[in-house]
Write the structure tokens for this entry.
Amino acid sequence: MIYPFDYQTWIISDPHFFHENIGRYCDRPDGWHDTIIENWNCLIQPEEIVFHVGDLALGKKENIEDLAPLLKGRLYLMRGNHDRRSNGFYQQLGITLVPDPYLMNRPSGLNLIFSHRPIQPLEPGVLILHGHIHNSLAPELGARHVNLCVEVRDYRPWRLGELLKPYTIR
């Protein structure tokens, strides 16, 4: 399936809403949960596409049901290792599921792979945009790995085009 992703698509990974321990594990600031929601809703308009690369929320079903309508945009979710609810649950909330990995072929320049976890080794001509590693240093991943986790992305979504500026875009 082809998804409506382009350079204007918003992208984010690993907010882990309702995961109490993640704040300590990743040294998140106080109020990180609200900060992510505020940043998300200040940037995104209701009709815009948000591609979430995994680990949206870990918590009670009711919390996730209450969260989904608060987040602006049309949400596309690549399930991460903590997104444990059924496909039907996410679809009932109006969330479109995206397979992991997802390849975005481009007519020129680097092809893009989106995956919750980093993939190694990478074939030539491929850039991977991933989550999962949070703010862990992972120099072995190399220059063609783009970490999308909120801890290294100012606790907010980013436009895909902005993230790709340091790379060859044609």
Residues 13-164 form a domain with the Purple Acid Phosphatase; chain A, domain 2 fold (CATH 3.60.21.10). The longest strand covers residues 74-78.
